[in-house]
Write a structure and sequence with these properties.
about 450 residues, alpha/beta, Rossmann fold, Alpha-Beta Plaits, 3 domains, globular
């Protein structure tokens, strides 16, 4: 690794996937979200919620928040989502070095309340940061609500910040969670980075690691990395690191399309592109002993207000002169474009009792089997969360905003697990798809990358 760093003039690895607060990127609203979190935690604003897909930077944000809070704020960081109702109370008390009778939960709660009152009287504040909150049992989340009730006659004694994946919103939507949801005063969402933001992010990380000079990542490579990572920072880090290693193995000081394609081909989370030359480049790097590799889209509930949706490009009408021409011989039906194994993989996804999901998967199969290679669809999201009920809820919301017959759901199997690809429309080319993406509802503009994908590319991913 020392040669790798020396080759690019780096003082340390720029794309580690472990959170390092010196590498906190304040673009893509991250800096604004941090400032808002600091304000909320210091002004007794009730429970705060931060939601983002896996690898979107929630843990990094949490670490930076802890680091930036002033000295008079005590922080309790809880990363274990399997706490029971009683265990989370004990964990908070232990973190604050409070002695309490373990045989009585009420005794622990009273001891915690007394300690918080004492701290408040001395000008100190206490903040609990709970990671992976979406995976907590409902009864544990109910205990969190009860902890938020600890207060004096005028002031909250405890500030709580919940970090979780989009499933946290679904949990809080349950009727049993209504009281907890009502106590959440601020909601923040970690959205994926857009292509221009990925370019800024890559440049920032390189320079934070000590690099001086022109940007290493060519624009075409940035575009590849943005698409391959779906804008998630952890995946960007992995692909960027692999791209640098590929460039180093070739003696190059810049990352181009070839190295980025090689990184994507070598990454398990990316769709399985058939890129033999890219794979060969990585194989050569591995043989040289230098391939050391560094190792959702969030589903936003669309607004219920309808918006004008982009319509797929229609075929041109037949001119009168053409209609009057002599009859032409019958045209043979197009040959199926999907292989039998691809059809079987699509059919292997268990959609459960979800009629909309069944219909949109079947429509996607038909479209993939017939659409020309050069036609494009618009990627809405690509996520590791293949829960069919979750996708069905997305489709129920989507039909309020766009024509549902233009939405396609493609289950992509990899290593025995399925990922879900949500797509919109069939357009005659990439330029048509890009223009149509600009006409999609504002919620989709904000939440999704809206990347054009050719049907040839989509079929290769199956």
């Amino acid at each position: 690794m020392s040669l790798y760093l020396e080759h690019f003039g780096l003082k340390e690895a720029p794309f580690r996937i472990t959170p390092h607060t010196d590498f906190f990127f304040d673009g893509a609203e991250r800096g604004a979200t941090l400032e808002a979190l600091l304000y909320a935690t210091l002004h007794e604003e009730g429970i705060v919620k931060v939601v983002g897909e896996v690898g979107s930077g929630k843990t990094m944000l949490c670490r930076v928040l802890i680091e930036r809070l002033p000295a008079h704020v005590e922080t309790v960081y809880l990363a274990n989502p399997s706490f029971t109702r009683d265990e989370i109370l004990y964990a908070v008390a232990e973190e604050l070095s409070i002695e309490f009778p373990r045989e009585r939960v009420t005794g622990a709660l009273h001891a915690l309340h007394d300690r918080l009152i004492e701290s408040y009287g001395q000008g100190r504040r206490t903040v609990i940061l709970i990671d992976e909150a979406h995976a907590m049992p409902e009864e544990t989340l109910e205990q969190v609500r009860l902890l938020s009730n600890l207060e004096t006659s005028r002031h909250k004694l405890l500030q709580i910040v919940l970090f979780g994946q989009p499933e946290l919103d679904e949990v809080l939507a349950l009727a049993s969670m209504r009281q907890l949801k009502d106590r959440i005063t601020h909601n923040f969402r970690m959205r994926p980075l857009q292509t221009a933001e990925v370019a800024t992010y890559l440049s920032f990380r390189m320079r934070a690691a000590g690099y001086h000079g022109p940007d290493v990542f060519a624009p075409a490579a940035v575009t590849r990395i943005a698409r391959g990572s779906h804008g998630l920072t952890r995946r960007i880090n992995i692909l960027a690191d692999k791209s640098l290693l590929a460039a180093y193995s070739e003696g190059a000081h810049a990352v181009g399309t070839r190295q980025a394609r090689a990184a994507i081909a070598d990454s398990e989370f990316a769709p399985r592109w058939r890129a033999p030359r890219a794979a060969a480049a990585f194989g050569a790097a591995a043989a040289a002993g230098v391939l050391l590799g560094a190792g959702a889209y969030r589903l936003i509930s669309p607004s219920s207000t309808p918006a004008s949706a982009a319509a797929p490009v229609a075929t041109a009408p037949v001119a009168p002169a053409q209609a009057a021409a002599a009859p032409t011989p019958p045209v043979a039906p197009p040959q199926p474009r999907l292989e039998r194994e691809q059809v079987l993989r699509l059919a292997g996804y268990a959609a459960g009792r979800n009629p909309l999901l069944h219909a949109r998967i079947e429509a996607a199969r038909d479209k993939l089997d017939s659409a020309p290679d050069g036609h494009h669809s618009i990627e809405l999201y690509f996520t590791d969360n293949s829960d069919p009920d979750r996708v069905e809820r997305f489709l129920m919301r989507a039909r309020e905003l766009v024509p549902l017959e233009n939405v396609y759901i493609v289950p992509v199997e990899s290593g025995g697990r399925y990922r879900i690809w949500a797509l919109y429309g069939d357009f005659a080319g990439e330029a048509h798809a890009e223009q149509a993406a600009k006409r999609l509802p504002p919620k989709y503009q904000q939440a999704f990358p809206l990347v054009p994908r050719s049907f040839a590319e989509l079929r290769r991913a199956l």
